[in-house]
Amino acid sequence: MTAAETIEPLPTAIDLKAEYEASGVAEVLAELDRELIGLKPVKLRLREIAALLIVERARKAMGLSHETPTLHMSFTGNPGTGKTTVASRMANILYRLGYVRKGHLVSVTRDDLVGQYIGHTAPKTKDVLKRAMGGVLFIDEAYYLYRPDNERDYGQEAIEILLQVMENNRDDLVVILAGYADRMDKFFSSNPGFRSRIAHHIDFPDYDNGELLTISQAMLAQQNYHLDDEARETMQRYIDRRRQQPHFANARSIRNALDRARLRQANRLFSSADGPVSADELSTIRAIDISVSRVFTQGVPDSSP
């Protein structure tokens, strides 16, 4: 055997903290902390999964493990709680640790997978899977894949293809199923093949009022807007009322409310300006821009969500 053919000995010890820092996972998690307010249990779970993957990678390097861990996941929670954002960061973590080849996220719903006639579903589902290979496939409202009340529904065909790929290609694709917790429970009960392939179940809590106010201020700051003191108090009252009404979608509803507040601000400035408008006026959301919402005047949401 030549020197070039000498087999390198397996390491006998690995510094896990050094592996963690070198992988860049800490950077991804720090970015998630900055990007998403709250969600402490979700962020803790991501750190736990990252630790598991680093340990598994170390075990493989030492010759202790050679089987890729099951990484398919279920994200449950109400709309607007950051599930898609966390899925994107998870794809990045998996890529940095070498568990997927590309680290991209493909986000789909039932319409992207299920066809309208015989022979249409398989090509659609396989095309989505082809695009997702090497990364993460995120299926939002996954329970809509299964419609037992419709005998002519083709969702079951998509499910069977997904289950096969999740089992046979789990070293090249991670699937994340997402949706409301109660509906996902029923979906798993009706499709035990999915439950057996899901290794990690993560529940996304609703934001509380204080977190939603912080989220609203952060969203405005990203666009160089801010609330004045009175508007901040009005926004807090808006959040209190809006959360008790139908179709509330957490951060998504807050974003929509701010879009409408900016629309009102623009019309207020345009109709009242007799001369030049300062940068501060252009950047300030005032109480009147929020208080005319139907949430206050009629007790109903401006729109849904």
Structural description of this entry:
The protein contains 15 helices and seven strands. By secondary structure, the chain is α/β, with parallel strands linked by helices. It is globular. The protein starts with 15 loop residues before the first helix and ends in an 8-residue tail after the last helix.
The gist of it:
With 305 residues, the protein is α/β, with parallel strands linked by helices.
Write the layout of secondary structure elements.
Blueprint lengths: L15 H8 L1 H11 L4 H22 L11 E5 L5 H14 L8 E4 L1 H4 L7 H12 L3 E4 L15 H14 L5 E6 L1 H10 L1 H6 L2 E5 L4 H14 L3 E2 L1 H14 L8 H22 L6 H5 E2 L2 H4 L2 H4 L8
Parallel strand pairs: 1-4, 1-5, 2-3, 3-4, 6-7
Helix pairs in contact: 2-3, 2-4, 6-7, 10-11, 10-12
Write out key terms for the chains shown.
single chain; 305 residues; alpha/beta; five-stranded parallel sheet; two-stranded parallel ribbon
Query: Cα-atom Rg, whole angstroms?
Result: 24 Å
Let me know the average pLDDT: 91
**Which geometry do the CA atoms define?**
globular
Instruction: Tell me the β content.
Output: 5-15%
In terms of per-residue confidence, which ranges show pLDDT below 50 for 5 or more consecutive residues?
A: none
Number of helices: 15
Helix content range: 40-55%
Structural class: alpha/beta
* Major sheet attributes: 5 strands, parallel
**What oligomeric state do these chains adopt?**
single chain
Order of helices and strands: HHHEHEHHEHEHHEHEHHHEHH
Distance between the termini: 69 Å
The strand line-up of the biggest sheet is: 2-3-4-1-5
> How many β-strand runs?
7
